[in-house]
Automatic annotation (TrEMBL):
Pathway: Cofactor biosynthesis; coenzyme A biosynthesis; CoA from (R)-pantothenate: step 2/5; Cofactor biosynthesis; coenzyme A biosynthesis; CoA from (R)-pantothenate: step 3/5. CTP binds at residues 103, 113, 131-134, 150, 168, 172. The keyword Flavoprotein applies. It comes from Glaciihabitans arcticus. It comes from the Bacteria. GO terms for molecular function: FMN binding; metal ion binding; phosphopantothenate--cysteine ligase activity; phosphopantothenoylcysteine decarboxylase activity. This is Coenzyme A biosynthesis bifunctional protein CoaBC. It catalyses: (R)-4'-phosphopantothenate + L-cysteine + CTP = N-[(R)-4-phosphopantothenoyl]-L-cysteine + CMP + diphosphate + H(+); N-[(R)-4-phosphopantothenoyl]-L-cysteine + H(+) = (R)-4'-phosphopantetheine + CO2. GO terms for cellular component: phosphopantothenoylcysteine decarboxylase complex.
């Protein structure tokens, strides 16, 4: 029913959406990851598709079913995500980086399972910084391409959250930043979301609260 009622205001637009959270392996059985489920990104893909867009969803360890209606590529690590995004973004009108990207990865991945017997009472990991995918897209962007970032912050004070967002959108070179507050019980793997959307000038250009589906449509309204 939603697909029938949706305005086709994204008809002909090519949109790349990343969703989920990247994982960085330590050894064949363990990883460093984050709590992103992929729900908001998948909701965006569904909503954009219903509104007529040609959607490529790049899913990093999705905990929800990827919609059949969109082209889906599955990845796990940040470097895999970067490569998939680079391939898909070249011809995209809009790239929405909803995925939670691991900022660091283990410097070395053990060939076999790390054993307690060969470690002491503490285990030290050396992590190296991952490339900033969104920043890389901004540096390589085609004229007219719209780049959208997401920033999940633990800051719950609205003005402080906006200040973080304004600094972040400038640092990233993105056009639009979707900001929300996350915490131990908020934001991840839940069915609802509350967001504030800003542009590169730091102006608030959208606000939404509700189900991840309704928030997805509000974000798309702002982009349209
Ligand atoms: N992002 C990215 N590549 C990274 C890290 C983040 O493309 N290596 C993207 C995310 O997908 C998101 C946006 O950048 O759309 C903001 O992510 P965030 O983690 O909030 O920004 P960081 O620059 O990593 O800052 P922080 O230190 O707050 O984590
Ligand atoms: Ca980060």
């Amino acid at each position: 029913a939603l697909a029938v009622l949706a305005p086709k205001d994204l008809l002909g637009k090519r949109i790349v959406i990343t969703a989920g959270g990247t994982r960085e392996p330590l050894d064949p059985v363990r990883f460093i990851g984050n709590r992103s489920s992929g729900k908001q990104g998948v909701a965006l893909a569904l909503a954009a598709s219903a509104r007529g867009a040609d959607v490529t969803l790049i899913g990093a360890n999705l905990e929800v079913h990827a919609p059949d209606a969109v082209h889906v590529e599955h990845v796990s690590t940040t470097l895999e995500l970067r490569d998939a995004v680079a391939g898909a973004a070249a011809s995209a009108d809009i790239v929405i980086m909803a995925a939670a990207v691991a900022d660091y990865r283990p410097e070395a991945v053990a060939e076999g399972k790390i054993k307690k017997e060969t470690q002491g009472d503490t285990l030290q990991l050396t992590l190296v910084k991952n490339p900033d995918i969104l920043h890389g897209l901004a540096e390589a962007r085609q004229p007219g391409q719209v780049l959208v970032g997401f920033a999940a912050e633990t800051e719950s004070d609205r003005d402080a959250l906006l200040a973080l967002g304004r600094a972040k959108i400038l640092r990233k070179g993105a056009d639009v930043l979707v900001l929300n507050t996350v915490g131990w019980t908020e934001g991840f793997a839940t069915d609802g979301n509350t967001v504030v959307v800003i542009n590169a000038a730091g102006d608030i250009v959208g606000e939404a609260a509700g189900t991840k589906a309704s928030v997805a449509n509000s974000i798309l309204d702002t982009l349209v």
